[in-house]
């Protein structure tokens, strides 16, 4: 391969030279040295005038080793210096610029020193492309070890250059040089030209913000004068500058004026940007501000709500989540009015996901109405129009909302019942019908309401019986074989096809067999929603209908003075219940009635035939009392969660007390005064105390090699959302210099190494900090493995030390979250990946085992505490968590206490992705025995 490259380089074909240079560079990057090519490249490539060849030549020179084993520059490198000097004086600006950029990557002062006059000369070149790279080259030279002696007056030269320069990119690079090498000069230039800062370009303004952050971290007392600059940059035309300004302002100041300005900027970006990713990022920033400065964000709630105009559902969902935490008595009316308008817009049907968006709006309105019952009257009737919505989830949410509002707002009971009875026939979903029937049975109290409720149910059930039974057993057998056939079509053809007497007997048998399906199909098409659902085999709904009719009849006995009317209604109700039982036990439907529904309907029949006072009390009072307990328990859990979220912080007894009122206020702006007050408040409440504990940091350190290895290495792992940073400490424990020491890493799972760490030379018994960045793309337990490779003077072969694996824990990516029971069941049925883990633990208490699993998996228990109380020997609970990538993790824990005191059962994990299901299963298997 090397000979082929050499022949191509010696030829005159430019395209062949380009390809050969690319191959040579690839060989170098893969670890090959190929020293025999150097002289060939100097002879045949160096004189080339082709720009691509020259660029590849510089890449080649950047990669090759320029020093020997003692760290001295190789003699042949002197051959390059003259070529670099010629390039720096080349008439073509591209050659000059790429050469200057190459010099930024050189670390050998011996090569750079003779080129310094040419570098400085390029600061005055006519083309800005050359000048901006010349400034970067000056900065690179000045930052080399001993570079301040090579270019003693570099800061002064660059400052003069900055004052006279007009090109924005060149000014930005010059300011960057002062920022990194002479910070005082950068600050002086900033305040000298502070009046013209809004005229500077976006890149330079971003650099100014970075400078402000750096200066204020070092000296917090001076941040007052810099905050004025930040506020002036909030009106810059660049949205990137606006975003950075807002973030910088919040990081430096907690004054209400500053926070409000930052929040207003975020709201403007939220409306002006069309990219949904940008909107989501801005909403994250607003969510952070909401957690820290809720009172200020309350004033901007309507500005945040305007983000609902985005067509993206994720943006809408996150916007509603933020707004619902900011609702107060002052703004709830405006918020609900806005949500009502959005609900009306979803009826247009322009977008495919209107049903899902409507469901989110219904849930938001539900939350508002629960917190502030006075607004319920303005929304409940509008939402009841959606009880018959084709989106079953949305209609179910409306029904649940109506059920809670009718209990918590007694003044609305009559109007809700009237509206519900008027619109009941529109409901098509079984779950919504069941909820609506429960409301009718519990809250129809007056005589007119009870009679209307019974009449509505009878109308939706249609005429009785539900089917016409066959006259003989042969016909019943024919029914079973002819179920899929459309009975109405068959019956219309038979008089034509079977007109002659030959088939008259067979015709009679078939007609008898097909007659029951004919009645069923005709009834299903011509009657109400309840009849259609029951004839489809939904006998659970039939049991709900039976219970509702029973409650209404029992209440009718209390409010109806006429015993005749009561007996008549009771008889009609019994006829309906018996007809449902007859339908369930017949062979008309593919599946017979289930045992639970059959038992429930039979119980209702017995109750209507013989009513006792105790039974009447249970049916008419105890059910609603249980519902009230459920609402009270839900409210109590929400209150406990709010209290748990409240940050409890304490001030230390020996903290320094700074008396703000004794300070001199001379020259302080209103913003600085507010900031001083906020700082005092934070000190008083202990907010400046960091949560991080040094002991916890030690848990993130992984030993990579053994203590007896010639090279000791350990890594401190930092996981931050999508990034993993490895801070590896490498120690040379030998008495000799280690050359070309390289940390080679590889990953397994959805992890990706961002860049390959470079080679280092490690002196005897010295250490080196090496950083490695890894990107994460999904919630999965990943593995980082690799080795350390190095060379010594005495051994020609490369030495390899294999490192211990680093397992990235899934717990770093998931956090406890909440979701509604209906949403949990929906996701449980939808998710395809399930991991089933058998319970194997030394813990003998069910509740203790549940708490241990919750702590080990960083999940939240959705089952209410009331459902986990008692000592029955069984425990079932649902756990839920959400990852930073938006993935849902569902866990169902079911355990039973055996006779010997041990626990048995299963833990089921379900997720949309395989990785999270397997990783959580491994974690639970590891932790469930009760070990810490």
From TrEMBL:
The keyword Cytoplasm applies. Residues 653-791 form the Coatomer beta subunit C-terminal domain. Gene3D superfamilies: Leucine-rich Repeat Variant (1.25.10.10). It is found in: Cytoplasm; Golgi apparatus membrane; Cytoplasmic vesicle, COPI-coated vesicle membrane. Keywords: Cytoplasm, Cytoplasmic vesicle, ER-Golgi transport, Golgi apparatus, Membrane, Protein transport, Repeat, Transport. SUPFAM superfamilies: ARM repeat. It is a peripheral membrane protein. Residues 797-924 form the Coatomer beta subunit appendage platform domain. Oligomeric complex that consists of at least the alpha, beta, beta', gamma, delta, epsilon and zeta subunits. This is Coatomer subunit beta.
């Amino acid at each position: 391969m090397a000979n082929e490259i050499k022949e191509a380089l010696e030829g005159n074909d430019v395209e062949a030279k380009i390809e050969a240079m690319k191959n040579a560079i690839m060989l170098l990057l893969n670890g090959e040295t190929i020293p025999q090519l150097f002289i060939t490249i100097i002879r045949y490539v160096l004189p080339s005038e082709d720009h691509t060849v020259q660029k590849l030549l510089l890449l080649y020179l950047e990669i090759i080793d320029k020093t020997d084993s003692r760290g001295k520059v190789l003699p042949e490198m002197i051959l390059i210096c003259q070529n670099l000097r010629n390039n720096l004086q080349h008439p073509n600006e591209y050659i000059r610029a790429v050469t200057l950029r190459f010099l930024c990557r050189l670390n050998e002062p011996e090569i750079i020193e003779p080129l310094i006059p040419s570098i400085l000369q390029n600061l005055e070149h006519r083309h800005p492309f050359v000048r901006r790279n010349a400034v970067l080259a000056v900065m690179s030279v000045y930052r080399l070890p001993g570079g301040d002696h090579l270019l003693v007056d570099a800061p002064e030269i660059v400052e003069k250059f900055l004052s006279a320069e007009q090109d924005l990119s060149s000014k930005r690079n010059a300011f960057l040089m002062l920022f990194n090498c002479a910070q005082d000069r950068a600050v002086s230039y900033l305040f000298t030209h502070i009046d013209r800062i809004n005229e500077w370009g976006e890149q330079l303004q971003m650099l100014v913000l970075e400078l402000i952050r750096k200066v204020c971290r070092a000296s917090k007392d001076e941040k007052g004068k810099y905050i004025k600059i930040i506020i002036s940059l909030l009106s810059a035309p660049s949205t990137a500058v606006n975003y950075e300004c807002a973030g910088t302002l919040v990081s430096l100041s907690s004054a209400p004026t500053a926070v409000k300005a930052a929040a207003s900027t975020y709201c403007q970006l939220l409306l002006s940007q069309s990219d949904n990713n940008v909107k989501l990022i801005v909403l994250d920033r607003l969510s952070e501000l909401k957690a820290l400065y809720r009172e200020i964000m309350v004033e901007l709630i309507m500005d945040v709500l305007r983000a609902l105009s985005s067509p993206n559902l994720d943006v809408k969902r996150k916007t509603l989540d933020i707004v619902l935490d900011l609702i107060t008595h002052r703004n709830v009316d405006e918020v609900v009015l806005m949500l009502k308008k959005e609900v009306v817009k979803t009826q247009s049907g322009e977008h495919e996901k209107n049903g899902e968006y409507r469901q989110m709006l219904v849930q938001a309105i539900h939350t508002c109405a629960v917190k502030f019952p006075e607004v319920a009257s303005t929304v409940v009737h509008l939402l009841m129009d959606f009880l018959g919505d084709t989106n079953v989830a949305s209609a179910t949410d409306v029904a649940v909302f109506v059920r809670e509002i009718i209990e918590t707002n007694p003044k609305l009971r009559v109007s809700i019942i009237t509206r519900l009875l008027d619109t009941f026939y529109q409901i098509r979903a079984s779950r919504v019908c069941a909820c609506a029937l429960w409301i009718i049975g519990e809250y129809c109290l007056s005589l007119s309401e009870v009679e209307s409720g019974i009449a509505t149910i009878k109308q939706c059930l249609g005429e009785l019986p539900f089917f016409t039974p066959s006259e003989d057993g042969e016909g019943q057998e024919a029914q079973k074989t002819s179920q899929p056939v459309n009975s109405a079509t068959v019956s219309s053809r038979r008089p034509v096809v079977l007109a002659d007497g030959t088939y008259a007997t067979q015709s009679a048998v078939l007609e008898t067999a097909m007659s029951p399906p004919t009645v069923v199909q005709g009834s299903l098409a011509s009657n109400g929603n309840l009849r259609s659902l029951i004839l489809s085999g939904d006998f659970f709904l039939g049991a709900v209908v039976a219970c509702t009719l029973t409650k209404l009849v029992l209440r009718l006995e209390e409010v109806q003075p006429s015993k005749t009317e009561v007996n008549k209604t009771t008889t009609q109700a019994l006829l309906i219940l018996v007809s449902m039982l007859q339908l369930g036990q017949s062979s008309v439907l593919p599946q017979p009635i289930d045992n639970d529904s059959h038992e429930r309907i039979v119980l209702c029949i017995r109750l209507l035939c013989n009513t006792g006072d105790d039974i009447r009390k249970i049916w008419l009072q105890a059910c609603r009392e249980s519902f009230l307990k459920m609402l009270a328990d839900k409210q109590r859990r929400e209150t406990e969660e709010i209290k748990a979220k409240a940050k409890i912080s304490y001030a230390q007894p020996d903290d320094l007390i700074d008396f703000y009122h004794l300070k001199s206020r001379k020259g302080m702006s209103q913003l600085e005064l507010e900031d001083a007050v906020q700082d005092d408040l934070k000190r008083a409440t202990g907010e400046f105390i960091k949560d991080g504990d040094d002991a916890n940091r030690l848990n993130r350190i992984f030993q990579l090699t053994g203590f007896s290895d010639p090279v000791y290495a350990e890594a401190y792992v930092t996981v931050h959302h999508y990034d993993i940073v490895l801070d590896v400490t490498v120690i040379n424990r030998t008495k000799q210099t280690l050359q070309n020491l390289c940390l080679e890493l590889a990953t397994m799972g959805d992890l990706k190494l961002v860049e390959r760490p470079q080679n280092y030379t490690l002196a005897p018994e010295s250490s080196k900090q090496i950083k490695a960045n890894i990107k994460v793309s999904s919630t999965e337990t990943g593995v980082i493995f690799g080795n350390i490779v190095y060379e010594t003077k005495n051994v020609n072969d490369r030495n390899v030390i294999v490192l211990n694996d680093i397992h990235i824990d899934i717990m770093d990516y998931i956090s406890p979250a909440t979701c509604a029971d209906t949403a949990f069941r929906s996701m449980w049925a939808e998710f395809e990946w399930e991991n089933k883990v058998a319970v194997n633990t030394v813990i003998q208490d069910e509740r203790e085992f549940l708490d241990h699993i919750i702590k080990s998996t960083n999940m939240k228990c959705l089952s209410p505490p009331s459902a986990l109380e008692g000592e029955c020997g069984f425990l079932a609970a649902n756990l839920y968590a959400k990852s930073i990538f938006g993935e849902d993790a569902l866990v169902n824990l079911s355990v039973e206490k055996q006779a010997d005191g041990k626990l048995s059962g299963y833990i089921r994990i379900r997720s949309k992705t395989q990785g999270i299901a397997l990783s959580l299963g491994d974690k639970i298997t590891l932790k469930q025995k009760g070990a810490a």
